[in-house]
Amino acid sequence: MAETAAALRTVAHNVRAARTRAGLTLDELGRRAQVSKGALVALEKAQGNPNLATLVRLADTLGISVSALMQGRPEGRVRVVDAHAVAPLWTGERGSEARLVLTTEGPSPVEVWRWRLEPGEEYPSHPHQAGVVETVSVTSGRMTLVVDGAEHTVEAGRTAVFDGDTPHTYRGAGDAPCHLIMTVQLPPGPA
How far is Cα 186 from Cα 68, in angstroms, rounded to an integer? Predict the structure, then answer.
């Protein structure tokens, strides 16, 4: 419970700092990100329980990575992250999950995600900001990737890359769980 409270305080601080840097009021950020002002006020007070879709919309609107909202300052030159030590940001009703393992630093950050998709379970994603590129590498099982309405089968050992600024969905296919590594490359931020 203490870990959850600390994580929420970090998110609250990072959202407030990014909103201030962007020169946005709570009303304007809420309008652009399609998040209610009340939810933003609660979030900035380290209250509530924001879901993955809300965090993605806020990050996209603020022009930063999801993990930039969630992570504190790095503690050294090398970061080693155990994916199972990172809490899932999304869990499906059938046991699917998505974990944001880490985000690289620099002008064009890259998020590294580990996903498990159970057969038939899916996660629909809204379009990201222009310039976002996603790469999906299936390590076991099979998935259906839907990008702008077109379905693509991606099996173990295959990788798909696409522009993330269009509607897209990840769906478990076959009769076994699909495990994949996804990267989300963000466009360069303001100089």
Answer: 12
* DSSP calls for 14-28: HHHHHHHHHT--HHH
Give me 139's structure tokens: 């390590």
User: Strand pairing of 142-147 and 150-155?
Assistant: antiparallel
Paired tokens of 141: 């099982």
- At 125, which amino acid appears? S
pLDDT at 191: 44
- What CA–CA distance (Å, rounded) separates 67 from 64? 8
| 113 contacts: CB under 8 Å, gap ≥ 6 | 98, 99, 100, 101, 181, 182, 183, 184
How do residues 57-82 score in pLDDT, each as one tens digit? Answer: 888 888 777 777 777 665 666 777 77
